[in-house]
Amino acid sequence: MKKIALVFVLLAVSSSVFSAPAELRLGIDPTFPPFESKDAQGNLVGFDVDLGKSICEKINRKCVFVENTFDGLIPALKAKKFDAILSSLSINEERKKSIDFSSALFTTPVYLITHRQSGLSASADTLKGKRVGVQQGSVFETYANKYWRDNGVNVVPYASSDQVYADLALGRLDATLDDAASATVAFLDKLQGAGFELNGREVFDKDLFGKGTGLGLRKGDDKLRESIDQAIAEIKTDGTFSRLNKQYFTFDVSPRS
């Protein structure tokens, strides 16, 4: 009788194990509000975080967020420290040489951030001899290096955007290039950002910013990419994306056509 009972216990345990959803490990750099950051209790929060949870729900996976510095996300993905990158990763041709991407999740405008009445603009002519801080490994650093560095602009990379804003507020930098939504939440709406602004017009480069952001995946992970693409399509048709868009932003962040 005891043996029969033990068999039933083992069957119940094995059934619960096999019915539990598999994990989807998502690499993330939580220093980029309102997309990914930590609240006062140390919990991960943000637009990307909520999108990730929605995607996991659609494909019946358990979301596990793995923290990593932004410039180390792609090497860590290749080293299989996680299954995909979900950290406002812009889709561009240079990155596509080494990783694959999901379909586009969202896109937001990019601006130069300066002190008001600085007399600067997002051009090499006015920025020549100035110090422009950028997050290391970001498309903002790529843009600054592409258009400004060889024209006399001192492009200064930082490990995180909050370090950039700390030095900008202290006058150690003259400007930074960043996502407008993140810049507003992380800096302009705070006391340290008083007197600073989104300078002039949107900065745009079709190759760097035009394709929006997506999840980065290892090359060859086609089944995972296809399931994630299907989940993205579903959250955009069932109202989930629209609800989160309105929760975090006052403008539409749908990818540009």
TrEMBL record:
The lineage of its organism: Bacteria, Pseudomonadati, Pseudomonadota, Gammaproteobacteria, Enterobacterales. Residues 23-252 form the Solute-binding protein family 3/N-terminal domain. Residues 1-19 form the signal peptide. It is found in: Cell envelope. One of its GO terms (cellular component) is outer membrane-bounded periplasmic space. This is Transporter substrate-binding domain-containing protein. SUPFAM superfamilies: Periplasmic binding protein-like II. Keywords: Signal. The keyword Signal applies. Gene3D superfamilies: Periplasmic binding protein-like II. InterPro entries: SBP_3_CS, Solute-binding_3/MltF_N. Belongs to the bacterial solute-binding protein 3 family. The keyword Signal applies.
